[in-house]
Amino acid sequence: MANVKCNPDLVRERAKCSFDVNELIHLIDGGENATKEKRHFEETIFSVKELQDAVPEEYLSHKDRYENAVRKATILRDVCREYMKKYNYKPNRFRVGHGVFKDVSPFLLHDGMFVATIIGQGTPEQQAEWLPKAENMQIIGTYAQTELGHGSFIRGLETRATYDPKTEEFILNNATLSSFKWWPGGLGSTVNHCIVVAQLFINGKSYGIQPFIVQIRDLNTHKPLPGVKVGEIGPKMGFQTANNGFLGFENFRIPRMNMLMKNAQVLKDGTFVKGMNEKLTYGTMVMVRVGIVGDCSLNTSLAATIAVRYSAVRHQSKIKAKEPEVQILDYVTQQHKLFIAIASSHVFRNVYSWLSKSYLNVMKDLAQGKQDHLPELHATACCLKAVCSRDAGSVVEECRLACGGHGYMTSSNLPLVYGFTIATVTYEGEQTVLLLQTARYLVKAWLAALQGKVLAPSVSYLSDWLKNDNVRWQNTPEGIVKGFQHVAAGKVKAAYDTIQKYIKLGKDYEDAWNLASVQLMKASEAHSRSILCEVSWGEVIRTSASPNLLQVLKQLAQLYLVYWTLETSGDFLVYSNISKDDIAILREKYEELLAAIRPNAVGLVDAFDLRDEILHSTLGSYDGRVYERLMEEALKSPLNQESVNASFHKYLKPLMEKAKL
Ligand SMILES: CCCCC/C=C\C/C=C\C/C=C\CCC(=O)SCCNC(=O)CCNC(=O)[C@H](O)C(C)(C)COP(=O)(O)OP(=O)(O)OC[C@H]1O[C@@H](n2cnc3c(N)ncnc32)[C@H](O)[C@@H]1OP(=O)(O)O
Ligand SMILES: Cc1cc2nc3c(=O)[nH]c(=O)nc-3n(C[C@H](O)[C@H](O)[C@H](O)COP(=O)(O)OP(=O)(O)OC[C@H]3O[C@@H](n4cnc5c(N)ncnc54)[C@H](O)[C@@H]3O)c2cc1C
């Protein structure tokens, strides 16, 4: 990229960067070798001509766009397969996927959830049967859980799997419209198999929801099998190429062994054998929630790169009347909008890495029959997924708005990035629903703290606070982290007390919970923020890097801490010993941090190492040829391929002529 002829503002920005951009790239990637491998892989993918679109896909019809996405998905699969064989390298398909599809792959659910569920929910025999076929794409699948009537409350799913011991089969039925599966990616026209999550019935008795692997289309003709009604749900706000679909069954039979039986089992005679913990059936969702935190980091870095580079190139208005128009990046308000995006991406990445380790540890424990840490993992993954996805959505939108009118152009790619980022707030567990799951855990932890029990590490601050809630405020990163814990503890206590108050007034527990649920949700958010602050600050101070880079990383991590303290200063005034003077000091600190980060802003986004082919943005390309690219892309509009459009003769001219009469 170094030889590209760049916009002079970007050249100047890069020259004043105080740290080694390559060092940060390697740190993010996990080492110099990892960067080399990543770049070689991406070079290979983006040099495949057939993966490049001649016409921007936004000009295609819904159907053509889908077909083009499937075409590219199959080529990408082949190229990746060859690459993996040749280099023994497991590539990050999600990252290049943004480049290849701009939106999302119709195979997203195959990779993200179908294969993962076979691994997580299948017995060794079931894995041996389906995993090789799924991994080499002999079968293509999705994860079909959500229905028209139920997404959040999965115990309420209506699809039925009734066991017939005579034939040793399950009979699948969707008797009501609300029971139709609705949303699964790839279901519309791509997949031939599904994990169907359905209510198990044996001898008229319900045994809760279980996962079944079901073939829904003929492997040769791709026609829906008899008894299967399947189709696509139509255009959405984003995810246009994900091919989300609907599905219903009528007396559709599948063999007994198609129930994934790693946890619970149905024996030949219809005996139901309970698993170690029925919530293990929800395992794929926990895994994907963890993954989404990592995805939030990538999505945020895409938007930050586009908006920061554009802000370095764009000049508008003046700070001083007699001086030239300034780069908009010099406006402190612009820095306020953008630097939190850079900082958030690093925070999400560090927290993702921490959460993934916890996830893997719990999986190891579960394999040995130990489930003590599962509730903590579930609670942590729920609130982090909810808060990171919501933050990522807000930050991406702020980056888009920070690009003014041009941020509204599809060719900036910011609307598309916003579309797939904001979807993460809803899918894999709607944010409020997940925050309330964490709140259940927090309330239990609070009760345990009141009883003097030892708490799990992520909530041990509740006991500390109970012992001493009168800690002197300190304007240091460690002091701020403590402050976030005080806010979280104070909110958990307040929510708990509110529940107790309603119970004393005669409400039953569930009604009291609902009445206190705004507070519970906020307590859960505060808990999540305290984890984000504690973990990210802890990761940064443990990072081994050159002094120059470490200084910048600390500035970003502090910016995140101070930004969120100021954003939620009302909470700090209520729940901690912060004073108005401390807030004034933090405001000053915030301004200092913005000024300190300013010279490194372009270097910092360069260090996300996102190729132009992944960014897909007229505003964010490495060379900063913003206006040239905007014009080049505009000229690709089909309306610009003719000097006079037929609508002139058909409608406009008659209209004008009528007006003359
Ligand atoms: C790998 C890289 C990935 C990168 C990421 C990028 C892309 C990802 C790829 C694909 C994603 C694309 C599209 C998304 C696809 C989907 O959206 S699939 C559908 C997802 N659906 C949901 O997430 C549904 C959300 N709802 C639920 O999870 C549950 O209904 C609920 C809200 C958790 C409630 O369940 P319920 O059975 O009613 O439980 P209840 O509230 O009664 O709680 C009972 C106890 O169970 C505990 N618990 C609940 N869930 C879990 C769990 N997963 N694990 C462990 N424990 C759990 C809960 O804490 C309660 O415990 P108590 O001790 O009783 O308090
Ligand atoms: C882009 C996209 C892709 C998806 N892909 C898939 C897929 O591949 N497979 C699949 O199975 N599903 C998929 N889904 C579905 C997704 O998982 C659900 O939409 C999601 O879990 C939310 O459920 P819901 O739509 O029923 O929302 P609802 O639960 O109806 O939410 C509506 C409102 O009700 C509130 N609410 C609901 N329950 C409670 C409660 N207990 N307490 C307080 N408030 C509550 C919510 O907070 C929200 O404000 C996808 C969705 C999207 C948007």
Which key phrases capture this entry?
661 residues, alpha+beta, Butyryl-CoA Dehydrogenase, subunit A, domain 2, Butyryl-CoA Dehydrogenase, subunit A, domain 3, 3 domains, six-stranded mixed β-sheet, three-stranded antiparallel β-sheet, 11 strands, 56% helix, globular, binds ligand LLIQVSAO, binds flavin-adenine dinucleotide
| Beta strand % | 5-15%
What shape does the CA trace take?
A: globular
Bound ligand species: ligand LLIQVSAO, flavin-adenine dinucleotide
Number of helices: 23
Residue runs with pLDDT of under 50 for 5 or more positions = none
- CATH architecture type of the largest domain: Up-down Bundle
| Helical/strand content category | alpha+beta
Q: Regarding CATH, which class of the largest domain?
A: Mainly Alpha
Q: Please compute the radius of gyration using only Cα atoms.
A: 27 Å
Instruction: Provide the domain count.
Output: 3
Spatial separation of the terminal alpha carbons: 62 Å
CATH topology of the largest domain: Butyryl-CoA Dehydrogenase, subunit A, domain 3
Strand count: 11
Helix content: 55-70%
Main beta sheet strand tally, sense and closure: 6 strands, mixed
CATH fourth-tier homologous superfamily of the largest domain: Butyryl-CoA Dehydrogenase, subunit A, domain 3
- Overall average pLDDT: 97
